[in-house]
Amino acid sequence: MRAGFLGAVAVAVALFLCSSSWAMDAPAFYSLAKKQAGINAFAVTVQSAVETGNWTSPLWRNTYNGAGLKAPPSWRASKPYVEFVSPESKDGVYYKKSSYFRKYESPQAFLKDYAVKIKQDYPRCTPDNVWGYFAGLYKGRLGKWATDHRYFELLARKAVQLEPVLLTQGHLKRSLSYAIDKYYLEQWQIDIIKAVMDK
């Protein structure tokens, strides 16, 4: 009887620790991201919200992997990782694929490694401009960040949704003018941003 009671208590404690350890929202993540050099804090908050379903996905809960960073063989040789089935897209068709993902001990550890990944593989991500940052995710050293053919639109929609929560009103509109002036964006990206912002 006592062993059963202690087992139930252990399960309850484990569930509490699991649920509280990964709890995150946009303001909390943004606050952490602002402390990490080399990235655009708002852009990575938006990207992480998209990638993790607002920090509720099993991958986030189990690994603190806030942007779906894969674990190549060089990572798996010495660092923690998990195998996980995730949605992918090819030629506009979605399917499930099993892949290896990096595992972190904290959101801060994720952000530190993410900044290294951006610097090495996505150097055209502009820390000074959210739209330029998103455009840079399409011009990586090894290709674009995500396979999802709607990824840019998803990022734009989430950015508009989070603007009133994290930024001053009109920030995204001013950022768009700046990005256009700096030639950060392709026309299809401008069209998506304008369509999303006009809704």
List keywords for this structure.
199 residues; mainly alpha; Lysozyme; two-stranded antiparallel ribbon; 10% strand; disordered N terminus
Description:
The protein has ten helices and two strands, in the order αααααββααααα. It has 199 residues and is mainly α. It has a domain at 24-56 and 105-198: Orthogonal Bundle (Lysozyme), CATH 1.10.530. Strand 1 and strand 2 form a beta hairpin. The protein starts with a helix and ends with a helix.
Helix/strand-derived class? mainly alpha
Average pLDDT reading: 90
Largest sheet: 2 strands, antiparallel
Q: How many whole angstroms does the radius of gyration measure?
A: 19 Å
Number of helical runs? 10
Q: How many DSSP-defined strands?
A: 2
User: Kindly, what is the distance between the CA atoms of the first and last residues, rounded to a whole number of angstroms?
Assistant: 60 Å
Strand order of the largest sheet: 1-2
Query: How are helices and strands ordered from N to C?
Result: HHHHHEEHHHHH
What is the CATH architecture assignment of one domain? Orthogonal Bundle
| Helix content class | 55-70%
β-strand amount? 5-15%
Low-confidence stretches: 1-21
Oligomerization = single chain
List the helices and strands and how they pair.
Blueprint (H helix, E strand, L loop, with lengths): L1 H20 L4 H8 L7 H12 L5 H6 L9 H4 L4 E10 L2 E10 L4 H15 L8 H7 L14 H16 L4 H11 L5 H12 L1
Helix pairs in contact: 2-3, 3-8, 8-10
Task: Report a brief summary of the structure.
The protein is mainly alpha-helical and 199 residues long.
